[in-house]
Amino acid sequence: MPDPPLYPPERLLDFTARVFEHFGVPGDDARLAATVLQSADLRAIDSHGVARLHSYVDMFHLGRIDPRAKIAIVRESASTATVDGGNGLGLVVGPKANAIAMEKAAAAGSGWVSVRNSNHFGIAGYYVLEALERDLIGWAMTNTTKLVAPLWGAERVLGTNPIAIAFPGEREPPVVIDMATCAAAYGKVEIARRAKKPIPAGWAIDRNGAITTDPDAMIDGGAMLPLGSDRERGGHKGYALAVMVDVLSAVLSGANWGPFVPPFALRQEIPTRSVGKGTGHFFGALRIDAFIEPSEFKRQIDEYVRTLRKTRPAPGTNGPLVPGDPEREAEAIRRRDGIPLVLPVIEELRDISRQTGIPFTE
Amino acid sequence: MPDPPLYPPERLLDFTARVFEHFGVPGDDARLAATVLQSADLRAIDSHGVARLHSYVDMFHLGRIDPRAKIAIVRESASTATVDGGNGLGLVVGPKANAIAMEKAAAAGSGWVSVRNSNHFGIAGYYVLEALERDLIGWAMTNTTKLVAPLWGAERVLGTNPIAIAFPGEREPPVVIDMATCAAAYGKVEIARRAKKPIPAGWAIDRNGAITTDPDAMIDGGAMLPLGSDRERGGHKGYALAVMVDVLSAVLSGANWGPFVPPFALRQEIPTRSVGKGTGHFFGALRIDAFIEPSEFKRQIDEYVRTLRKTRPAPGTNGPLVPGDPEREAEAIRRRDGIPLVLPVIEELRDISRQTGIPFTE
C-alpha cells in the first residue's frame, strides 16, 4: 500500500473553516472550530480531525447544530460557571467555555466550568494546551455517545469519556495527558476488522457481554471495555473514571449523560429518551502561582520529566515515554511535512467539496 | 481457617486514639486521626486501617512525625491554598487541609488545596465522604511511596497514587469513587504469596521489568503495574493518571514526588535524595449549587444510579455495581457486627499495647 498523501496543514485548515462558514458559522468561529479539528490532525489523533468533518456536515444538514448559537452563562460563582452552549458547534462552545474557566482562574485562583447543550468538542488535549499558553494547569473532560460497558455490564452505557490535563515545564516540554477512560480506542477495532485480524482480549465484549477477540462481534452490538478491562485488572476503576467524567460534564451542567448522550454520527442509534440538553463538557484551570512560584514548579517538572526518562527500560522498550511525547513529536513532523490523509477521508472531503462548492485541491 | 475475630468499632477507635495521644498527639487530633483510620476498617479497606497503626507508631518512635505539628497556609487565593503540614500526622493534616478546601468552596464556589510536608493520610475516600456531609463534591488525591513502574519502565518510580471523588444522590446512596491508579493492590500480591498462588498477568513485573505471575518475583525488587497493565490495554493511561496525582499533590505544593516520596514503613528503602518536603496531597471541593440546583443534581444522580443498576448483566455476574457499593455494604455490616482482624494485625496491636501500656482488650 502506498503511503497516504500529505496535505499542507494550512490548506486543510482553510478548507475546514470555509466549510463551517458555508453552513452559517460566523467567520471567527469557523476559523476557531477548524483550528480545534486541526489540532487533532497535527497531533496524530486522526479519528478526531478532518475525518470527522463529514459528521459535522451531516449534523448541519439535519439542523441538529445551530451554527450561530450564542453561549450563555446560566449560573456562576467566583470560581465556577455553568454554560449553556445553545446547541452550537462543540468546536466553538468548547473553546469559549474553556476561556471562561481560564478567566475565572485569573481572578479567583481556579476556574471550573460545566457545559450543557453542546456536541462533539474535538480532542480534549486542545483545551489544556490553550491553558498552557496562559501558564495555567488546564483540565478538560467531555462525555460522548455510548460505546463502553460498565464493568459486569453486557451493553453500551457510557461514552469513551476522556480526561486531559497538562503541566508546563521550563526547559523540558510540558507533560500533556489526554486519555479516554476505556481500554482501547474504537478506531483500533475498525482497523482490525479491515485487516481481518483479532483484537486483544480486554478491549471489548460481544452482544452477550462475553469478552471477545473478534472485531465484528464488538461492532455488531457489543461494547468496548473500560480501562482495566476486567475485575482482576481494575476494570472497575476505568468504569468509575468514566462515571466521574460523565457526572462532572453532564449531571453538573444539566446535559444528557450515560446512554442518553445524543449520537454524533448518523450510523449511531438515537437514545430512547433525553435527560438533559445536548452533550456535556467540563473544563478546569488552576493558576500555578496561586499555589507555588511558577519558576519553581516548572523547574520541578523538568526534573520530573528527566527522572521518568532515566527509568531503567523494560525489556524490548526504550524506557517510559512522558505523557504527550508521541503527540508532540507527531506535530513537529506534520507541521513540516503535512498531514497524511487516508483515501476514505479524502473521499469524504471531496464529497463535502461537491456539496458545498468549496474547492478541495490536492 | 476459623473466621477472624470481630472487634467492636468503638473499642478499636478508643484504643487507636489513646495510642496517638500516648505519642503526644493532642486529644482532639488523636480522635480525628483514629476516626480516619477507622473509616478504612469500616469500609473493608483493611490495609489502611489499624493494620497501619504499627507503622505510625514506628514513625513516632523514630521521631519522623511531629505529633503537635501545626499546619500553615503558605500561599492562597480566593479558591486555592497551599498547606504545609509541618511534618504532622497525615491523618490530622489531611482532614484539616480538606476542611480548608471546603471552606474555600463555601466562599468562592470551589476550593483546591495542595499539601506538602505530610505523610500517609489514610484512605482517600474518607475525605470525599466528609465533603458529602456538607453537600459538596469532594476530591482527594495523595502520592505514596514508590511501588509502581511507569509503563515500559523496569523499576519502581511512582506510588499507587489514589484518586477519590463522590457525588450525592437524593434517595439512592452516593456514588463514591476511591481508587488507586495501579492495576491491583500490593496487598493482593502478599496474599497470593502466603497462599503460594500465582498472581494474574498484568499486575506486576519482576526486577528485570518482565511481566511476572510469581508474587515473590514482584516483591523481590519488582514493581506493580499501572492501571491498564500493558501498552495494548492502556497501561500508559494508568501511568499518566499516577503522574497527574503526583504533580497535583507534590509538585504543586513543594512535596517530594515520584521515587523521592519518603517511605512509610520501616522495610521500605530511603530515597536517594529529597526534592521537597514530606508527602503531598491534593484536595478539592465543588459547591453543587454553584453549578445547578442541588435537588436537580441529586435527582439525576438517583436516575444515573438506577440506570447503571438496570444494565444487562455480563455472563456470570449480577450486573454492574455502582462505585462505592462494596464499601458501603461492608460498613453497614461492620458497624453492626464488628471489624474482623487477622492474627498478624492483632499481634501488632498487642505489641503496641505492650509498648505503650494502653490495654488492648479482646
Beta content of chain A comes to: 15-25%
Mean pLDDT of chain A: 96
Strand order of the largest sheet of chain A: 2-3-4-11-5-6-7
Helix content of chain A: 25-40%
Rg over CA atoms of chain A: 20 Å
Explain this structure to me?
2 copies of one chain form a homodimer. The first copy, chain A, is 39% helix and 15% strand. Chain A folds into 3 domains: 1-68 and 337-362, Malate/L-lactate/L-sulpholactate dehydrogenase, four-helix barrel (Hypothetical Oxidoreductase Yiak, Chain: A, domain 1, Orthogonal Bundle); 70-179 and 235-310, Malate/L-lactate/L-sulpholactate dehydrogenase, NADPH binding domain (Ribosomal Protein S8, Chain: A, domain 1); 184-224, Wheat Germ Agglutinin (Isolectin 2), domain 1 (2-Layer Sandwich), CATH 3.30.60.50. Chain A has 362 residues and is α+β, with helices and mostly antiparallel strands. The first copy, chain A, has a 7-stranded mixed beta sheet, with helices on both faces. Chain A has a 3-stranded antiparallel beta sheet with strand order 9-8-10. In chain A, strands 1-12 form a two-stranded antiparallel sheet. Chains A and B meet through strand 3, strand 4, strand 7, helix 8 and helix 9 of A and strand 2, strand 4, strand 7, helix 8 and helix 9 of B.
